[in-house]
Amino acid sequence: MKRHLLGASVASALLLLSACNGSGSSSTKNIEPKSAEASMESGQTQNANSAPISPLEREARGKIEQLLSMMETAKAKNIDVTREETIVWFAKQFLKFANWDEANPEAIEAAFGYERYYAANKKQLAADLPTFERQKVIEIVDKGIGVLGQELRGEIKRRPVRKVDWQNTKAGDNMFVSNGKPIFPYDYFSKTVGQPLTNTDIYNDHLGALYHGGEDLYPVDHDRAINSFLLKEDGTFDQQLMEELTRIPDTNIGFLVYWIMGIPEWVEQREPEVRKGRSLFTGFDVDNPLAREVWGKIIRETGRLTKGKKVTELGFVLANEPHWFSEKDHWTARFHEMTELSSYTVKKFQNWLNAKYSGDITELNRNWGSAFASFTHVQVAIPMDKALLGTAQWYDWMRYNMDRGTEWFKFMQDELHAVNPDADTHIKIMPRMFMENSRSGGIDTEALAELTTMVGHDAKSLGSKNIRPSKSSKWLERYAYYWSGVSMFHDFMESVAPDKINVNSESHFLSSGQWRDLDTRTSYVRSVYWLATLGGMDANMAWFWARDPDGSPEDRLEGELNFFDPGLAGAYAGSNNMQPHVSNEYTQVMFDMNSFSEEIIALREQRRPVRLFYTETTAINTKDYMTQGYKLYEALHFEGFPLGYVTNNIIQKQDNKNWDVVVVHNTPYVTDHEFATLQSYLTNGGTVIVDSKKSLSLNEYGKPRAQQLTAGKGKLLVLNTHDIDKIKQAALGAIKPASLPAVVVKEENGKPYKTTSWRVVDNGKGGYTAILFNLGHDTAKLQLSLQNGQGFTITDMMTSNAMPSSFAIQSEDVLLLEVMPN
């Protein structure tokens, strides 16, 4: 009987039923790890199953030999072949994987069957997969032959790869640093559970080599190394479980996760309320005193034991995708999220209200339309009826729920810093907590980004249409992929915390519960990773690597799968584990970006001249704040400069000279404090554009505000329009000439809207570095010029080749250019 460790993803990261009740699963492995590879390397014509080597595999192996021969020639000419080494590695791996898949059709059919998008056609998909994988191997090797051939012939010159120093990379002030230069570490989150950290088939430059506690180690009975089960009822620690943490080699850098999903039985017996107010990924009431006592002890002990260890260089993840959705009919209800409140939470809410209303219960009753005798009598029905949206009761609970979440994470961080004051922290925040309209989830994205020492999240994108019928893919009408889910979120996080390292501890750019494409475009992979890194992402752990070295699925995905949530079971089908071209491209794009890390940092660390005003006050009180806000963001995104946001805190805490204008759009609700901050900004000489008099007209309880903004020493423009284009033109008109991009890009794409995004920065050599993204479906014609009208030359930095000032950019192309005035 085998027990497995739990993995994490946007759709899963949940307790296995086997971890809850001791059930197990059977293994499907039947190929010796090295025999297939050995027979192929020796030129035999049969694989480990005594099956003849397929013509496609024979063709692929011939091409691999051709590429290896070219690599020897290149090395003799001092040409870097790191990229080709990775192509060869993935090619050989996936030929091995294809043989395993061919020999185990039932296992692959079952994998497709667990994902409802593929289930109806699972038999044919399983039958086709080995051929598909071999064809894709041939494609990546052919591409490698073509590109290396160009370099050997002198047609292009690539910059050598800068590898991540997995032993000595350090966290700097706002970036990771390797050998004195910025570096972007990469790896896979939830990586082949059951394989030791010392296995170089899993930990290497091709797949990444970050260490992290629990998940990659040998399976144990519980879900993570750092979890509630570490502490026994007698106050001592389970040393066997603790070894899963302490035996991590102090060689490679990495990160650690506080896995707060479960709670021991002894805690439940002593605290019957401990599960009240639980959520999907937080398995207990965060207000419960005993739960806090348990976690306080665990955090202090693990923080003490790992102090100064390399495995904490990328920080401690304080939680996996936390949320506490408390509105009726939310999708989390089936996981019993926030279905009732504990007495501890009710009391804390009552105290919060007492402070909010300065002890005036009459004022609360007036706002709520209630008749409570005192604050100790106040009750709310949770989950809350959506019909209450926009009411004082809705606002007060939702605002409190956010403050409650922030206070819990402050508690966790304070406990860690009490014993390990230099420990870095971040939280895997789901972008939907900011991007979607709902604010019932208890997550204040801004407050948490300010709280932790690093910015944490699991930002994702959609490379093709959403595979869930209930989810919209409207963005596909204009764009090749869901770029705004990357850019808008990153621009907000970078606005809030511009001087913090940004860690995506579970990047779902390659697949997720909402989308996957069995033949994902490599152009998409390249574009989305460049876009996210330009936006601020300093390190990322992709979802997910689930192949053992012999080609079989990792331990958790063997046999009959019986997870708490079906997401993990279906995650394997259509993922990069079946796509050699995608797995290879991910590593190739990280190689390229690390080769140009200094240029990327220069491009990203620019002043953001236009700032969109953001407030949770309107977000909580309205049903479409983010939907409407995106429209203005989209309109301004394609103008050659990075967009930013301001909030009450940003205006008060950051240098107001970092922007030229604040734009207030579709924002009727603000607190008196927020209004006063905007007025102070104007009084001190700032520039504010307001779309109409409706914005800023109400307080958080919907009461009309008598005051209106006045210009003071600044400039105030009230447009009285909801027309996005008019608001956009007013914002562009308020930008100071020095803030405009030095390189101007004129686009023709046959559409009434732009699809080419670009950024420009001074390169310190008298010229400029420019990056361009075509986010549309079609080729766009571009004309470049300089703002000052001067002549110039252009060099494609990826190939070292000269380019004309007018050229076409293909869909999803990314161009990194050097523009030098004559």
Automatic annotation (TrEMBL):
Molecular function GO terms recorded: beta-galactosidase activity
Alphabetical UniProt keywords: Coiled coil, Hydrolase, Signal
Residues covered by region (Disordered): 23-56
Record field: compositional bias (Polar residues): 41-52
Classification via InterPro entries: Class_I_gatase-like, GH, Glyco_hydro_42
Recorded superkingdom: Bacteria
Coiled coil spans: 57-84
Protein name: Glycoside hydrolase family 42
Lineage of source species: Bacteria, Pseudomonadati, Pseudomonadota, Gammaproteobacteria, Alteromonadales
